[in-house]
Each structure stands twice: as structure tokens, then as C-alpha cells.
Design a protein that fits this description.
With 402 residues, the protein is an alpha+beta fold. The protein has helices at residues 9-23, 47-66, 85-95, 105-121, 124-135, 251-263, 271-282, 290-318, 324-349, 365-371, 382-392, and strands at residues 141-144, 160-163, 169-175, 186-192, 203-209, 215-220, 229-239, 244-245.
Length: 402
């Protein structure tokens, strides 16, 4: 077997910068008071706006893929370059300095969670159909995992998949908190296929076409005013067995593949808004009190700690290790940064954050304050992250399941 010769990473980065310069302008230093002042944690788009933004991002992602800069660490057979994760991180750093479309959650779900899961668990036909198409974003995917009755206990899902005599399946159930369901082509749905065994053993995963008869998407109105999430009703959805992802009864193992990738993608959450809060303090037009200066210094310090934790996660990935506890710590730090950012903004703005004075960079923070608490649940609750650290770092015993 011939060992791959890796490109010099400095030359790789220089080539990436040259290519990025052909499709986008370099970012200039932002000027306070110009451009959008949105600091929303969850986008508040109409269905039409969500589709428009998704199409804009997809066009850029396809250009990137076709030029050899997408799916860098994916196998060559799927259009990738089979490069180590360090090259992915190098490209992302270069990309940050260019004014390219900012990816929404759907793109990390599709390219970094679902496509690799199909690559690992799919049949040859499924790999040929889905992996390259998802990496290129010809197909967009969402996660049909959470349910109202299950809470954080994913293995307690009640959505049923019943197999017919001809080998096909009928799915009935209800999923909630599904991001991107209005624009997704497929959803990866965790379903119960056997009630006679332990709950973790009776699950199977499916790839559900979101336009299949019986699939209904209903937006969930949030207190921010928008509808970033959706309910998805699955009522008599009939699927051929070719849509089953992984063996019958192995849905939990397939789900863990998705969740492991999800934990790696949350470390940067909140940092951009934390930086914006610091800029707000610089542009208040009045001297800061001692309490305000102390709060700003604390936020800056904590955001640097979060960045260091992100570097540890990246280092573990580059080394080929599973950064489970590191990723859990990064997620906890991210939700803490969001909460501290909210505290600082309330301290600096007072009533201006609750009433629209028309002043740039003030009332926009209301969406952050309303949205930030949701990330203590999204992407794995704080309690789940604490359990991972307790078991895998502190060595504490797992409580027996009832």
C-alpha cells in the first residue's frame, strides 16, 4: 500500500487563500455602527428566507467542493482529498478571513454528522447515493431524534417503525426541535422497532425523505419571535428497506456515531457574540464603572479559556483520538460564555435592551438574551456533559439504569 504524500501545510494554506480570493472578498475590519447588528443565537427566518439563505450557502459549498476544497478529510471516492484534520482546520482559518456565506447548522449536520455516518453504516448503494451528494450539499439532511416524551434520554424514543411482510417499513411518530426540517431533503430518524428487548437494543435508524407522504413539518414559534425549530409528524410513512441505515436493532450505535460528531462542532459557540459585547463596551460613549470593567475582563478571560479548550479538542482530533471529555468541557464553556455575555449586556445597556430606541447595537441584543438559555439543552444538555466528564475523567461509576 502506497503511503499518501501530504502537501506542505504552509503551501496548502497559501493555495487556499489564493482560491478563496477568486470567489470572495477578504473581510475588512468591521466598523461599529455599520452593517447588521444581529447577535441572534437562533436565526429567525421565514420559510422563504430560510430557503433563500440555504440556496446561497449551497452554491458556495458546491464551488468549494468542485474546486477540491470541500470534504478535505473525506475519502477520494466521495470527492474528498483524504487529508488529515489539521488541513481542514487550516482551511477553516483561511476561510474566516474572507466574506463567504456563513454556514447555518444544517450544513454542519449534513456534511459533518450525517454524511460520515452514512459512509460508516450505509450499504454500497446508500454510500453511492448519499455521501458525495451530502458532502457537496446537493442533498441537505436534518436529525429526527428528539421527542417530547424522551427528553434527554434518546433511547426512550417512541416513534415506531413496523416491518411489513414484503420487507418494507411503516413509520409512525412525532419528533421535535428539528432544525432545518423545512429545507432538508432527508431526515435521519431514530425509531423503535422492537419493544420486547432493552430500550437501547430495540432501535433502528432510517433515512426518511422529507417529501414522503405522511411527513408533516410544523414550525415551533419561539419566544424570540422566530421559528428556528420544527415539529415533524410521521404518520403512516411507508419506506422501502433500502432506506434503513445500519442493521435492524443497531440504531443506538448508529445514533452514537452522529452524536460523537455533534459534540465536536460546538466549541466555538458564543465567541463571536462575546467579542461583540466587548466592542459594545468600547462604544458605549461613556466611561465604564468598576463593576462593568470587572465584568468585561471576566468575559474576555473566559472566552480565551474557551478558545484554549477548542484547541485541545482540535489537537485530539488531529491526533486521531476521541475528544469526548474535551468536547463536553468545550460545550459547557460555550454555554457559560453565552450566559456571561448576556449578563454583561444587561449590565451595560439596562432598559435599552428591552426597548427599541433605534440605536445600533442595543435592542438587537434582546434576541441573544432570549435565545442563549436554549443552548444549555441543544447539542446535549449540561447534565449530559457533566456525566461524561464525571465518568471518563473523574472515574465515577455510572448509576445503574432502572
Amino acid at each position: 500500500m502506497t503511503r499518501q504524500t501530504l502537501p506542505d501545510i504552509a503551501e496548502f494554506t497559501a493555495d487556499a487563500v489564493r482560491w478563496l480570493g477568486t470567489v470572495a472578498q477578504q473581510r475588512t475590519e468591521s466598523v461599529w455602527g455599520e452593517g447588521t447588528d444581529s447577535v441572534a443565537v437562533f436565526e429567525n427566518w421565514t420559510a422563504e428566507q430560510e430557503r433563500e439563505h440555504t440556496d446561497v450557502i449551497s452554491r458556495y459549498e458546491r464551488k468549494k467542493f468542485d474546486a477540491g476544497w470541500g470534504a478535505l478529510n473525506s475519502p477520494v471516492e466521495f470527492g474528498g482529498r483524504a487529508l488529515p484534520m489539521s488541513y481542514v482546520l487550516a482551511f477553516r482559518r483561511a476561510e474566516e478571513s474572507f466574506d463567504v456565506p456563513r454556514r447555518t447548522e444544517m450544513f454542519s449536520v449534513t456534511q459533518q454528522l450525517v454524511a460520515p455516518t452514512v459512509q460508516q453504516w450505509g450499504t454500497d448503494e446508500q454510500k453511492a447515493t448519499f455521501v458525495r451528494a451530502m458532502l457537496r450539499t446537493d442533498l441537505i439532511a436534518c436529525q429526527l431524534f428528539s421527542e417530547t416524551e424522551a427528553g434527554s434520554d434518546l433511547a426512550a424514543v417512541r416513534t415506531r417503525a413496523t416491518q411489513a411482510d414484503d420487507g418494507g417499513w411503516t413509520i409512525d411518530g412525532h419528533k421535535v426541535w428539528t432544525s432545518g426540517a423545512r429545507v432538508a431533503d432527508f431526515g435521519v430518524a431514530l425509531c423503535r422497532t422492537d419493544t420486547s428487548v432493552a430500550k437501547h437494543a430495540g432501535l433502528t435508524m432510517f433515512l426518511v425523505p422529507m417529501d414522503a407522504p405522511g411527513v408533516t413539518v410544523t414550525p415551533i414559534r419561539q419566544m424570540t419571535g422566530g421559528s428556528s425549530f420544527n415539529e415533524v409528524y410521521l404518520e403512516g410513512v411507508e419506506l422501502d428497506d433500502s432506506y434503513r441505515l445500519g442493521p435492524v436493532g443497531k440504531g443506538w450505535q448508529v445514533a452514537l456515531t452522529v452524536l460523537a460528531a455533534e459534540r465536536l462542532d460546538g466549541g466555538n459557540l458564543g465567541l463571536a457574540n462575546a467579542d461583540q459585547a466587548v466592542e459594545l463596551a468600547r462604544n458605549l460613549g461613556r466611561p465604564l464603572t468598576e463593576i462593568e470593567r470587572d465584568a468585561i475582563a471576566d468575559l474576555i478571560t473566559r472566552s480565551y479559556v474557551q478558545r484554549i479548550a477548542n484547541m485541545r479538542v482540535a489537537g485530539a482530533v488531529v491526533a486521531g483520538n476521541d475528544p469526548g471529555p474535551e468536547a463536553s468541557l468545550g460545550k459547557l464553556l460555550a454555554t457559560d460564555t453565552m450566559a456571561r455575555t448576556s449578563d454583561v449586556v444587561r449590565l451595560l445597556l439596562g432598559s435599552d435592551v428591552t426597548s427599541d430606541s433605534g440605536r445600533w447595537g442595543t435592542f438587537a441584543w434582546a434576541e441573544h438574551l432570549l435565545g442563549a438559555p436554549g443552548y444549555r439543552i441543544a447539542g446535549g444538555t449540561d447534565e449530559i456533559q457533566h456525566n461524561i466528564i464525571a465518568e471518563r475523567v473523574l472515574g465515577l461509576p455510572r448509576e445503574p439504569r432502572p
